[in-house]
Give the backbone structure.
Amino acid sequence: MDIIITGASRGLGKAIAEIFAANGYNLYLTSITETRLYKTLEELLNKYPSVTIKAKPFDLSKKNHAHEFGKWCLQNCSPDILVNNAGSFTGANVHDEKEGALEEMIETNLYSAYHLSRIIVPEMIRKKSGHIFNMSSIAGLKAYPGGGSYSISKYALHGFSVNLREELKPHNIKVTTVFPGAAYTDSWAATGIDKKRFMEAEDIAKIVFAASQLSPQACVEDIVLRPQLGDII
């Protein structure tokens, strides 16, 4: 079984890669930062020598990079699962965020998934099976101060998922949108908030893996996870 994961060098993407590798899946990974990606690749190869793990850096906010990565994947595997996890965050309000923030968030958080999926989906249709996970955010369900263009882009990603779900039903391909609240990753480390206030990245990975293991007759359309004490805003 083959899985493609974007934004795979750290955080949620790395945790998802870990759990699928531990369960015998072959991994095809990308992220924008070459050094971090290859460090993750080395760690995973050392821990899971019995599975195939390949990685190549791409900036998926660029359409041609998304296409190149998709074609590279198809040259190396026949994907069973695609996890669109690549993303970035700029925290500000719509009225005062930096110029170009919306374009940056849309290109990274929406277009990356859109353009890559368009390359991968035809192979899934040919196989008449597959599962796509689009990693949105709680910010894609509920606006909050400082969410700005990040929140807009995650709402848009949900819209993409809903459309894709309807299109791919007849082809036996599942589409799941994941809406994680705050999970403790590098981006939260500098805030000084107690680590116990957050979910663990592995929590999200476990639920994604569980959703991927259901019978062909069942599809988890939406996954919402929050810290036990609620959102961190």
